[in-house]
């Protein structure tokens, strides 16, 4: 039952993120927020499994990795000039140092891509394999937030 709840919750999370992103396509700030919400939920799921707070399953591990990867490959497209104004936590450094910001996005995409490859079609076989694949992804989140996020 716990496994099924985890899988249903994960599937719902991914579906809701896709719907939210589709609804905000004309608003880059709203789209960024939807993508970051997906990343946060995937990080919460993955972190919970890594800490043993949530039972690990390969499908849930793959879903967390896939959600991160989908956001990583799309994220950089939603920081056009002028989208630094409004209700956003994006730091001014994104626009003053676009090369540095894109380097962070590229590290995120590379880490999530490597995690996708390492996890195979069914997902990482066990929690140790998941930790090895997902840990580097979480590290890229931290490094980007340190230089390119406010608050």
Automatic annotation (TrEMBL):
InterPro entries: Cyt_c/b562 (IPR010980), Cyt_c_II (IPR002321), Cyt_c_prime (IPR012127)
Stated name of the protein: Cytochrome c556
UniProt keyword annotations, A-Z: Electron transport, Heme, Iron, Metal-binding, Signal, Transport
Signal peptide, first to last residue: 1-24
Annotated source species: Roseibium denhamense
Keyword Glycosyltransferase attached: no
TM helices/strands, residue ranges: none
This protein's record includes keyword Magnesium: no
Biological classification of the source: Bacteria, Pseudomonadati, Pseudomonadota, Alphaproteobacteria, Hyphomicrobiales
């Amino acid at each position: 039952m716990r496994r099924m709840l985890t899988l249903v919750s994960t599937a719902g999370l991914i579906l809701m993120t896709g719907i939210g992103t589709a609804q905000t396509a004309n608003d880059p700030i709203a789209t960024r927020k939807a993508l970051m919400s997906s990343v946060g939920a995937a990080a919460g799921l993955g972190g919970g499994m890594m800490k043993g707070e949530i039972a690990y399953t390969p499908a849930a591990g793959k879903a967390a990795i896939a959600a991160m990867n989908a956001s990583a490959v799309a994220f950089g497209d939603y920081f056009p000039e002028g989208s630094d104004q409004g209700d956003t936590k994006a730091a001014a450094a994104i626009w003053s140092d676009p090369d540095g910001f894109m380097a962070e996005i590229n590290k995120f995409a590379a880490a999530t891509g490597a995690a996708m490859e390492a996890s195979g079609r069914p997902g990482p076989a066990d929690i140790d394999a998941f930790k090895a694949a997902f840990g580097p992804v979480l590290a890229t989140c931290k490094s980007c937030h340190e230089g390119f996020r406010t608050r």
